[in-house]
Structure formats: structure tokens, C-alpha cells
Fold:
Amino acid sequence: MPSSSTPSRPAPVPRSPRALLTWAVGARRTDLALACLLYSTHQVGEALVPVVIGATVSGAIDGGTPLDLGFWLAVLAADFVLLSFSYRFGARASARAKQHAGHALRMRVVASVLGARPGATDEHAPGELLTRASSDADRVGGFVGVIASALAAAVALAAAATVLLLSSPLLLGAVIVLGTVAVLAANAAISRGVEARSGDEQREAGRAAVLAEDLVRGLRVVKGLAAETTASRRYTEASRAATGAATRAVRAHSLRDGVTVLTTGLYLLIVVGVGGWLALSGALSLGGLIASLGLAQFLAGPLQTLAAVPASAARARASAARILGLLRESDGRPHSDRDGEAEHVPATSPRAAPELAVTGPSGTITVAPGAMIGMPAGTAAEASRILRSLRDARGAGPGDVLVAPHESALFRGSPRDNVAVVGRPEGVEAALRAAFADEIVADDVGEGGLRLSGGQRQRVALARALAADPPVLVLHDPTTAIDAATEDVIAERVRAFRRGRTTIVVTTSPAWLARCDEVLPVDGGATARAIR
Structure:
């Protein structure tokens, strides 16, 4: 992980969902170009199969020699080898383009959320953010893979139409070309309603994910209040809404697929009828009829591929619009190490703590570097205002102030892994001891720390905040789930660990307040500024 507290400037936010799609497509342009080339070669090879078979039959009927027959069979075998290898390596390139494009967009979403100023994305729950960074990004990446297939289908259509117009009667060629255009137009028209359905599907899925996350995180509270029935009903309603939106989206896609099959079938029926009539009238040879009908049947595949493009594009635009909304919310908010989470990486060398002036209803106190100050907030809203003020202290430089929230997410891995992600190696063990987390035995804390008790999660989170070693550390109720005796030991250890650096504790705990150099009443909130 980078050790500098000054990140690179983020890429400009695109102006529209279409521009975001264009950016995602360009993220893996080399793989995409290779996939387009190989897929096109495969499709042209497929189109040549009926032409070569027709030439073979015509040569045999018109008195061709065994050598001629062997030549056309060798050409047919070579064509199959070409199209087989082209598809194999084209599919690999397409998969790389799709996966890497989705990953690039996912990383951009993550960087944007992490780099946003505090509160910029607070209206989105973690489950909603996860949906946009995962399934929405995957849909956009999937559309990148569709582009290669669509371009190859267009190349195949052009090649087949050219062959038909040059080798078949004008009437049959015109019927095939005009029929192709009509099928594409009909499918484009029926695909217009897919975008709205796809947006609704992703939105409802995100809401259900958010509610599921909230219920899992608050399961103990739900059981304590005997609210299992109400919680179950709420989730059932959200799940049914998500299922309904998904069903409507699937119906829209099914309608589009049905129209595609119907129009393609009618197209083939007309082509077969016209071709058979021309063969009976002598205007078309048997080999030409085989080639023409084979090409018409082959065109059903590229037609269905192109017919699916508008729906895929609609779904990708809907997901791109959701992602773009998130990027816009985070745009222009510079990232700093004081963005409110204890997971940020500290600078490689210690920085001197700034002198803070904190003003509350009872007056202003000067927080000298190295002091420990208590702020007994009475309500959650009041604590939130205090934390926001301290985090955004006027005049404080980037990385000067780090706010460790009351609830901080843990990552999969051991307690030490969670602490080592932010701390220098030499400070990790000391931070674990100070937070009384060195005695927690767990190879994996689980997703979000769910394998630990509430008190154990708080101790690991506190150790991580201590290991970050910022000049000013703000702790919000760090030990509410820990017994009084252990809390008293931790408060004393933290005071000793933070000696020489400023520590502000927003809490009503007597164990913490008793060890503070000064306690500032903050009824109604507080404001903070740095004194340089």
C-alpha cells in the first residue's frame, strides 16, 4: 500500500453514461481489437462454409474430376481449421477485455468512494455501494465483451451480403439484404423498453442488499427486541419488490428474444421460398441454391447477435448511469488521511501534532500537542456533529486528524492482519497490546468481523486506529461493548501509548474521562480549528 498521504489526482468524471461506457471500452482496447479481429475471421470463415459446399456440389454435378473434388474438400477443411482457432483465441481476448474493463470500472468506483470528502456518499448504505461496484460494473464490462461479437456479426453480414449480391440473382440478394435490415429494425424497436426495466432491477436489488446487510449487522438487537417477525416482513417485502423488478426485466428480454426468433423465422421462410422459385425457373443452379440458402441460414446467428445489442446496451447504460451518479457525488472531494476511517495509511515519518482550539457552549479550550481531551456527547446526533467538526478542523493539514468511528468494519484475516494494513510493522504489536487485542485468538475474524464478539471487534478496531499513529486521534465510544474492568485497563494503556500525541475521546465513559487532562462540555456541538 502507498505510504504517501498525497494521492494522485483522480480521472475526470465523464459527462454522461455513454461517455462512461466509452471510457470502459477504451480501458482494454488492445484485447478488444484482437477479439474483434479474431471473431470477424471466425464469422467470415462460417460464412464461407455454405459457399464452399455449393461450389463443391456444382463442380461434381458439372463433371468435375476427383482432383477438383479433393481440392474443394481441402479448402473446406482449411476453412474449418481457421474458424476454429479464430474463435478459440478470440474468445480468450474477449474474456480478458470484459473482465479487465469491469475491474477497471470497479476500481474507479472504489477509488472515488474512498477519495470522497466525509459525508459525500453517506446516503448510500454499504450494500448499495457494493451493488454498484460489483453487478453494475460487471454489466458494463459484459457490454465490452458484446462489442466484439457485434462487430464480428456486422462483418459477417456485410461479407455474406456481398457474396450473395455477386453470385446470386439480384432478386434473391435484394430479398436477403432488405430482410436483414427489417429484422434489425424490428428488434431495435422492441429493445427500447429494456433500459428502464434494467435500471429498476438493479435499484431494487440494491435496496434488498442494503436491508439484508442491516438485518445481519443488527441481528442481536433484533432478537433482543423480539422484532424478528417485523424484520422478516420488511425483508420479505424488499425481496418481493426485487423479484418483481427482476421478473419484469426478464419479461422484457424474453419479449425481445421472441420477436427476434419470429422475425428471423419469417425472414428465412421468405428467402427459402424465393430461392426455390428461382431454382425451379432455372435462374439459379443447384450449387447456387445451396450456397444462397446456407448463407441465409447462417445469417440467422449474426442477426440474433446484432438484435441483442440494443438490449445489452440499454442494460449497460442503466448501470453506467447508476455508477456515474456515484462518481458525481464524490467528484471534486480531495482524499486525505482524515476522511473519517481508521483504515488509512499513516505517513512514513511521524508528524508533529497541531495545536487545536476547540469551542463549545461553555467556551474555548486550547488542546496542546500531546494532551488527552474528553468530550461527553449526550446523543448520537450531537456526537456526529462533534466528530464532523474535529475531522474538518479548519487549518489542519492533510493527515493531521484521524477520526476512528464507533463502528468500523473489519476485513477477513487475523486481528493482526487487520491492524497491519495501516500500521508500520514496528508499531503493530504495541498497538495490539494497548487495545488489549493481542490475546484475541482467531485465524480469521470473518467478513466484517462477524466471528468476533462485539467487544473483540471494538478492540481490534481500536488497535488499528492506534497503529495508524496520526498526530491527532479522535476516538468515538471505543469500548462500549467491553466490561468495565477491561475498559479501565484499555483506557490507561491508550493514554500511555499516545503519550506525546493528541487524543480526543468523544464518550461518556467514566474510565476514559477520568484519564483526560481536560473535559470540555459540548452540549449542542463544538467547532475546532488548528492554531499554527
